[in-house]
Amino acid sequence: MAGMSERPGPSVKSAERALRLVELLAEREPRSFTELYRALDMPKSSLHALLASLAHQGWVADDGRDGVSLGYRARAMGLSGLDESDVLDLVGDVMTQLRVHLDETVHLARLDDGDVLYLASRYSRQALGVRFRPGRRMPAYATALGKALLAALPAPELAAALPGEYAALTPSTLTSAAALTAELDRVRAAGYAEDHEEGTVGLQCAAVALQHADLPLVALSCSVPVPRMTDAKRAAIVEALLAARATVLGRLRP
């Protein structure tokens, strides 16, 4: 490549430090600011600026305990696949942004033996809110998360994930294969799923699947108590979830 053999000048020193910083975190993370300062031998003010720039671009992240870890871009770069903990790193900030924007509870979940398994949540700060904890399980056919995930499955995997019996969790639960099949067709056409008190009385949800070759199949949802769910709010939630999906998938290689 033209120019690659030229002797590097002072202007590339910050690039060298940025690469070295990412290498240090790849070797072991998290690392404290002091560790990085000593290893890189650069002014503290310059290190602060470098970390801020790298964090803005997604290369590093604050681990929440005064340490610095790799960011979503570093984790996704060149990987043939991400594990569950990587997925949480990848979508955590997007979930937080959704919760702040909508002021409603946001969930991340995956399928597990025909159920939805909740992996992480960001909770609404409103008095009347949703408090499903990580590890909670619900039948996939009775939730927006589950329907978004089921609709994303290839036909053989979908057949294996469907239940033999459809128990009615609420009066609104879909209780037949025909009803669920029609609903999954609607989900595929719309690009998102909804549930209207089908899994929990008093609760409505919307969800989108995050489907990519480098990701385990997961889904994001927003759950809202019925008294707050207006048509305008539902439209805003769907728009925000679709934008969040685009953001997450945009962080992964094409």
Structural class: alpha+beta
Q: How large, in whole angstroms, is the Cα Rg?
A: 22 Å
Q: β content, as a range?
A: 15-25%
So, CATH architecture of the largest domain?
2-Layer Sandwich
Q: How would you sum up the major sheet? A: 6 strands, antiparallel
Brief overview, please?
The protein is of the alpha+beta class. 43% of the residues lie in helices and 18% in strands.
Explain how this protein is built.
The chain is of the alpha+beta class. The protein has 2 domains: 10-70, Arc Repressor Mutant, subunit A (Orthogonal Bundle); 84-250, 2-Layer Sandwich (Beta-Lactamase), CATH 3.30.450. The protein contains 9 helices and 8 strands. The strands form 2 sheets. It has a 6-stranded antiparallel β-sheet, with helices on both faces. Helix 5 (84-102) runs antiparallel to helix 9 (231-250) and helix 6 (144-151) packs across helix 8. It is elongated. The two termini are 24 Å apart. Residues 1-6 have low confidence and may be disordered.
List the helices and strands and how they pair.
Layout: H1 13-27, H2 33-40, H3 44-56, E1 60-62, E2 68-70, H4 72-76, H5 84-102, E3 105-112, E4 115-122, E5 137-139, H6 144-151, H7 155-161, H8 177-190, E6 193-196, E7 203-210, E8 218-225, H9 231-250
Antiparallel strand pairs: 1-2, 3-4, 3-8, 4-5, 6-7, 7-8
Helix pairs in contact: 5-9, 6-8
